[in-house]
Every structure is written in structure tokens, then in C-alpha cells.
Write a structure and sequence with these properties.
The strands form 2 sheets. This protein has a 5-stranded antiparallel sheet with strand order 2-1-7-8-12, with no helix packed on it. The protein has a 5-stranded mixed barrel with strand order 3-4-10-9-6. The chain contains 4 helices and 12 strands. By secondary structure, it is of the alpha+beta class.
């Protein structure tokens, strides 16, 4: 029902007409971050070539140094080039070029995939677009609210005022190479020898960050919502013209057994077979709830990483390297 065929699901074969990804292993969790990334890119390049040569239908030609780590999902990795993302999703190319980031934080710009087909148009029109992470409702007075809207609970997004309009017609995909999560203290995980974290200034135990990624080397494709926001006029009155700011949020759900080891929430990951239904603006919102479920248990793997990721000023593949 959720679109995942089984716990080791691979994207559909390109000859089936559905968009494929790359069905290959990422590498052992204890491999160096550089080796992991190189292996992943080589495999994806082969998949992108396969996509380009297949008979697929044409689908359309200021962050703070430290941010709260308890949000789910509050940081992720986005290192795939935009031209490869466009091929991967069968979308039009992005107008704005973003650099790679191994520490994407709230209010940063991220790539999203959306369907811009007009009403009554049968063929999808996928578009790769850069948006500000942190959804700003159309009725908001300013952008500040976006920093508190980086996640939306899938259980209530369809009814919450901040998200319900976007849930009806402005749904998107948000690709990531993996994401970070900080283990909740109550999970009482064993300490990695030589990497004792100590206490915060308030005397509470520090949280251990983990890098979570797909075991099969695929992108993590989050279910997202997007919105257009127009800055108010000088008198503070709302307007509906000019250049809008486009923002997005990541939907979350309860954890699968893998994520449950460290946290009580996880981002919603969508299988390739669910992308069309999720993106189609004409999809009945009431029919989408079955997609918003935890990913299969064996889909994800994780390992502890250095606390350098706590600061958004830190970048580079060393952030996803496993500590031992």
C-alpha cells in the first residue's frame, strides 16, 4: 500500500515506464565517507545513463551557527548535482544552482521536485526547484515562522492551518543523500569508546549524532509540502503579486524498528512507485494517508558520527564518517 514492495525494495525497471533509481549497494557502514560517496556517485551515474537511454515519457523539459538538534528531521546531506537530480526524477532542470552540502540546516535552500501540470493536464510536468527549507504559510506576516516549520507531522498536516492548503495541491519530493539524527537520552545507547560526549552547560548528557542512509545506495526521497509566500507591502498588508519566496517542509511519521533505536520520529520516505500519486495536484488528499508510513525496517542503516555536525558551519564528507 505504501509503495514499498518489500524491505529490500528497488526502483522499478525503466522499461516499465516508471522512473528508476540506482539499485546498488552503498558500501559498508564503516567505510570512509569519501569511499562511500565515490561509490554512490559511480553507481548513480550508471543509473542516470540508463534513464537517459530508456523510453520514458517526457515529463518536462542565513542560518545560525548552532540550531536545535532535537528536531526530526533537522539536518541532512545534499551532495548530488542538480543535473543528475533532474535526470533521476525526470524533471526539468533547476533554474538556481546550489552547491553540495554535508550539513543542510533549516532556512537553507534545498532542491525539491514538484509537479506543475495545469488543471486537466494528463501528463506530469516535473520541475526541480530550489526552495527555502522551513514552510512559510501564505498568510504569515514574515519569514520567521519558517524556522519552526521545517517538519510537519503527517498525522495532522492535512488539518493544521499552516499546512492544509499545501497538502491539498502543493506536495513535493525532497531528495537527500542521507540525514542526521541525535539520539534521545532516554534511549540509553552505549557510549562509543574514546568518544565520550560529556555534559551540556546545563548538566544534561549531550546527544550522540547519527548519520542515516539507505542501505541500497539510493537517495532518501522525503515526502514534502511547498508553499509560495509574498512579502507584505510597507504597511504590512498582504499582497499577491511580485516575486514570491518558495518554501518547503518535510513530513514525519512514527519510527520503524531501525529508527526506534535512537528516536521516536522519522521522515516519511516515498518509494518510486508512489512519486506520481504524491506529486499529482489532482490526487485526492484523503487517498494519500497510506503513503505516509514508516519505511521498511531493512531499508535504512546508520552509524554514529562526530559531533562536529552539531555546528552548521562545519561541512565536508568527514561529517558522515563513522566513529569507532
Amino acid at each position: 500500500v505504501s509503495g514499498w514492495r518489500d524491505s529490500n525494495s528497488r526502483p522499478p525497471d525503466p522499461q516499465s515506464g516508471a522512473l528508476p533509481g540506482c539499485a546498488t549497494a552503498r558500501g559498508a557502514p564503516n567505510a570512509s565517507a569519501t569511499a562511500v560517496r565515490t561509490h554512490q556517485q559511480e553507481r548513480r551515474t550508471a543509473a542516470f545513463t540508463l534513464i537517459a537511454n530508456s523510453n520514458l515519457p517526457n515529463q518536462g523539459s542565513g542560518t545560525q551557527e548552532r540550531l536545535p538538534c532535537h528536531l526530526m528531521c533537522g539536518r541532512f546531506v545534499a551532495s548530488s548535482p542538480p543535473d543528475e537530480l533532474a535526470k533521476y526524477f525526470g524533471s526539468s532542470p533547476a533554474e538556481e544552482q546550489l552547491g553540495e552540502s554535508f550539513n543542510v540546516a533549516p532556512t537553507s535552500k534545498v532542491y525539491t521536485v514538484r509537479d506543475l501540470r495545469a488543471r486537466g493536464q494528463a501528463e506530469p510536468e516535473r520541475n526541480l526547484a530550489a526552495m527555502r527549507w522551513g514552510l512559510v504559510p501564505f498568510w504569515a506576516k514574515d519569514l520567521k515562522i519558517g524556522s519552526r516549520m521545517i517538519n510537519a507531522r503527517s498525522e495532522t498536516a492535512m488539518t493544521k492551518p499552516a499546512f492544509r492548503q499545501a497538502f491539498k495541491r502543493r506536495r513535493c519530493l525532497i531528495p537527500a543523500d542521507g540525514f542526521y539524527e541525535w539520539a534521545l537520552p532516554e534511549k540509553k545507547l552505549p557510549v562509543v569508546a574514546g568518544h565520550e560526549l560529556g555534559l551540556t552547560k546545563a548538566g544534561k548528557p549531550k546527544k550522540q549524532p547519527f548519520f542515516i542512509y539507505r542501505e541500497d545506495g539510493e537517495l532518501c526521497v522525503f515526502a514534502g509540502l511547498w508553499e509560495r509566500w509574498f512579502p507584505p507591502d510597507p504597511d504590512g498588508e498582504p499582497v499577491s503579486e511580485g516575486d514570491p519566496i518558495e518554501t518547503c517542509t518535510i513530513l514525519t511519521c512514527g519510527p520503524n524498528k531501525t529508527m526506534q533505536k535512537i528516536h521516536d520520529r522519522m521522515p516519511v520516505l516515498l518509494a518510486p512507485g508512489s512519486w506520481d500519486q504524491w506529486l499529482d495536484p489532482s490526487s485526492d488528499p484523503d487517498s494519500l494517508g497510506d503513503l505516509l508510513v514508516p519505511a521498511p525496517e531493512k531499508l535504512l542503516s546508520m552509524h554514529p558520527v562526530p559531533t562536529a555536525v552539531n555546528s552548521v558551519r562545519n561541512q565536508g564528507p568527514d561529517l558522515i564518517e563513522a566513529i569507532r
